[in-house]
Amino acid sequence: MNRTEEWTVRVDLSEDHGTTKAEAVLDTGTAKLTGHGVARCSPQDPDVPTIGDELAASRAMRDVAGQLMSVADRELGQAGAGPGDGPVPPPYAWSDATA
After folding, report:
1. How far is CA 47 from CA 10, 42, 57, 60, in A?
2. Which residues of 79-89 are buried (b: 16+ CB within 10 A; e: fewer)?
3. pTM, full prediction
4. How many Cα atoms occupy the beta-carbon half-sphere of 57 within 13 Å?
């Protein structure tokens, strides 16, 4: 089977008094997943906004990735391709090597 899809990720960042918040939205065309991340600058650390952006954005994207993995796990189970007896640590089914 050959197919091509395009998914988009939008990350919105806001900073207020040393706290950076990020919202990441994955749009698959049929579903949207939204993740959130926060980074706080310690009072003794230099204020480098880029670092807060990177931390908050990575945490928001990690949140989306966890949600996406939960969806995939659920769908694998519904398709009969999931683990047989209880939780099995990833990877099962498709591995990163075959993706």
Report:
1. 25, 9, 17, 21
2. eeebeeeeeee
3. 0.78
4. 12
For residues 40 and 18, give the distance between their C-alpha atoms in angstroms, rounded to a whole number.
6
Whole-number Å distance between alpha carbons of 16 and 97: 41
Query: 23 has which bridge partners?
Result: 12, 36
Strand partners for 87: none
Distance separating alpha carbons of residues 13 and 67, to the nearest angstrom: 20
What tens digit of pLDDT does each residue of 72-94 get?
988 888 888 766 566 555 554 45
4-60 tens-digit pLDDT? 999 999 999 999 988 999 999 999 999 999 999 999 998 898 888 899 999 999 999
- The residues, ordered by sequence, that sit 6+ positions from 8 with a Cβ below 8 Å of its Cβ are 26, 27
Pairing mode, strands 19-27 and 8-16: antiparallel
